Amino acid sequence: MGNTAQTEKKTEVTAPETPTRTQRNFILKVMDKTGNDIKKALKEQGVEIISIMEIHREEIQAS
Q1: Looking at residue 47, what DSSP letter applies?
Q2: Is the pLDDT of residue 63 over 80?
Q3: CA-to-CA distance for 41 and 30, rounded, in angstroms?
Q4: If you average pLDDT over every residue of the chain, what do you get?
Q5: Would 61 be classed as within a structural domain?
Q6: Total domain count for the chain?
Q7: Residue 1 confidence (pLDDT) above 60
Q8: Residue 51 phi/psi, 5° resolution?
Q9: Under a CB-based contact definition with an 8 Å cutoff, are residues 38 and 30 in contact?
Q10: What band does 4 get if pLDDT is binned at 50, 70 and 90?
């Protein structure tokens, strides 16, 4: 009866969550622009560019 039971309160410490970022892939079809033109336009709008690849070029006859 001289023993008093003490309960310890344990607090779990966790690291703050870092926001998740997502990489997305898009396919664009543009007329008469280069990869640098597209990159510049997107960067001006606050879009972070990871890479731009030209995968197909098609010459269109003027009508």
Answers
A1: P
A2: no
A3: 13
A4: 86
A5: no
A6: 1
A7: no
A8: -160, 155
A9: yes
A10: low
Distance CA(60)–CA(7), nearest Å, equals 80
Residue 38 lies in a domain: yes
Helix (H, G, I), strand (E, B) or coil at 44: helix
Query: Cα–Cα distance between 47 and 45 in angstroms, integer?
Result: 6
- Asked whether residue 4 is domain-assigned, the answer is no
Residue 41 lies in a domain: yes
Q: Are 49 and 42 in contact (CB under 8 A)?
A: yes
Q: What is the mean pLDDT of residues 25-31?
A: 92
Q: What is the pTM of this model?
A: 0.58
Q: Which domain holds residue 38?
A: 24-53
Beta carbons within 10 angstroms of residue 52's beta carbon: 13
